[in-house]
Amino acid sequence: MSYSNCAILLTAPGPAAIAVVRIVGPLVGPFLAEHFSKPAREGRCVHGQLREGARVIDDPVVVLLPHNLGADINLHGGPWVVQSCLDLAQSFGFDIVASDECAVDGATQLEREMLASLPLATTDLALRALLVQPDAWRDVSTNQIPTILNDRALWWLLHPPRVAIVGAPNVGKSTLANQLFARERSITADLPGTTRDWVGELANLDGLVIMLVDTPGVRETDDVIERVAIDRAGEQVRSAALVLVVLDPTQAPDAQRGFIDAHPGALIVANKVDRPAAWSARDDTHVATVATTGAGVEELRGAIRAQFGCDAIELSKPRWWTTRQREALERGKLPFTA
What we know:
Strand content: 15-25%
Mean pLDDT: 83
Helix content: 25-40%
Number of domains: 2
Strand order of the largest sheet: 3-6-7-2-1-8
Distance between the termini: 15 Å
CATH topology of the largest domain: Rossmann fold
CATH architecture of the largest domain: 3-Layer(aba) Sandwich
Number of strands: 14
Structural class: alpha/beta
Number of helices: 12
Radius of gyration: 23 Å
CATH superfamily of the largest domain: P-loop containing nucleotide triphosphate hydrolases
Low-confidence stretches: 100-105, 186-198, 217-221
Order of helices and strands: EEHEEEEEHEHHHHHEHEEHEHEEHH
Shape: globular
Largest sheet: 6 strands, mixed
């Protein structure tokens, strides 16, 4: 099917250093050919001029999304520049879709919700999984409702789950977090208590974006600041959709086993497995890593994706991604209307 042509301001309204306008639909190619000074390239940043006739609106960076899914126009964030870009797109035939607007053009309720949710799709995987949904639901019967209801993959692709890393001091939590962030974000050192507060940031695990929370090691301490940090980290852990319990087999097992008991359903990671072990964590472990070298980190990324149904995901399956859809399914109803 052919989706409506739409333009969406992905970034917050108002003055900013950068603003991103995403355009989607069959008009993307003709629009860029007429108004952008250079040929856009899939997955590559192309710097050129956005023009309306002889008038230069801005010199944005344009990126074509894979699989002909659209293009992101990365503008200077002045209000006049953003509005001029949106006006130009509208005059070319794009519908302007607000990120919080549900009543957008579309033939069905699912298509309208798909269009309204485009700003939430921050990865190629999320975008492709979302765009196929109107077609994926075409021949669905009520017999499939239980299976669809249990599949939360698209919800998680659009709403980054919180993943908390917990464990005793100096087991390598922050080094492991830096590997998952794919850059150094947490301060690390071979000293207990180095992480003095929880550190949270988005990490892209091959298409699944998560809010990764690195917490200070839990221990008895007279340090008031560290004690407060541990208490605050506990709030983050309780609200997490998934907990990673990091073990260090080179340390004594007593305090570490308590983390396994305290977090049933957690993903257990045995770190520092390249060193002589003081005890065997093999029976409890889901993934073995060496955070300092990155060994086992790809397996851990895959295990996290699998926890949210996003590992080797089959894109053509029908999935729910809004509260309205989930509630309809819970009532035994198919969530689409004419």
